[in-house]
Amino acid sequence: MDQFSQSSRHNSHIESLIARARSGDAWAFDQLMIAHQQRVMATAWRMLGNVEDARDAAQEVFLRLYKHLPKYDARQEFAGWLYRIVINVCHDVARKRGNRHASFEAEQEAGQLPILLSKDDSEHAAMRAEEQKIVMRALSTLTEKERAVIVLRDLEGISTEEVAKILGSTPTTVRSQISTARTKIKLYRDCFLKGGIRK
Questions:
Q1: Cα–Cα distance for residue pair 65/86, rounded to 1 Å
Q2: Sheet strands (E) in the chain
Q3: What is the pLDDT of residue 106?
Q4: Which of 5, 29, 68, 119 lies 20 to 30 angstroms, CA to CA, from 192?
Q5: Could you report the per-residue pLDDT of 40-69, keeping only the tens digit for each?
Q6: Domains contained in the chain, CATH given
Q7: Is the pTM of this model over 0.85?
Q8: What is the pLDDT of residues 146-197, one digit of tens each?
Q9: Strand, helix or coil at 140?
Q10: How far is CA 75 from CA 79, 81, 103, 134, 158, in A?
Q11: How far apart are CA 178 and CA 199, in angstroms?
Q12: Is the pLDDT score of 123 beyond 90?
């Protein structure tokens, strides 16, 4: 189950907020934004690999959400619709910025990285942080489409069929892109661990 949709009670609350926000209730839109800001920021960071760009993207996501919410079709899943906005905004930001990437270490030292690790013992957390660093670096080597499918499928936990809907693609194409992306990440990881890539 993806992280936007957690329980039916939560979903009915979100549906209520959407309905109220669509009719102009500013408080309801604020609550909708608060309910999704952490996931939007984390997804944008995973897509862009840079906290500053992710913050800019998150702001743009909520501006577009506000602008297009009246056009939202309540028959479609809100989470998928929101993911589509996040991915589109991240593609736009990536195109505008070129190849600018802040290093993982610089952002970590500056305390700018979102908290994405669970509360484990410190040794396990350190191992996960190292693995996360490798994955984030590997993600930066993927094409936009490969990065989008791997972030949505493997990091956000969305089904292949839902990823295809979000990206306007087919499950077969998504599976192929996931396979290619996973292979590239594995090769990058293996090379990194063998010392072929500078830390």
A1: 10
A2: none
A3: 44
A4: 119
A5: 999 999 999 889 999 999 999 999 999 999
A6: 8-193 (1.10.1740.10)
A7: no
A8: 999 999 999 899 999 999 999 999 999 999 999 999 999 888 888 888 876 6
A9: coil
A10: 12, 11, 41, 39, 19
A11: 26
A12: no
Q: What string of DSSP letters covers 158-170?
A: --HHHHHHHHT--
Question: How many CB atoms sit inside 10 A of residue 177's CB?
Answer: 23
Spatial separation of the C-alpha atoms in residues 37 and 32, rounded to whole Å: 9
Burial of 105 from C-beta contacts in 10 A (0-12 / 13-18 / 19+): exposed
Q: Residue 7 carries which DSSP code?
A: -
Tokens read off for 41: 């920021």
* Tokens 């669509």 sit on residue: 22
Please report, for residues 2, 86, 114, the alpha-carbon distance to residue 71 in angstroms, rounded to integers and kept in the order given.
Answer: 24, 17, 31
Tell me which long-range contacts 15-24 makes (C-beta under 8 A, separation of at least 24).
15/74, 15/78, 18/69, 18/72, 18/74, 18/78, 19/74, 21/69, 22/69, 22/70, 22/72
Radius of gyration of the chain from its Cα atoms, rounded to whole angstroms: 17
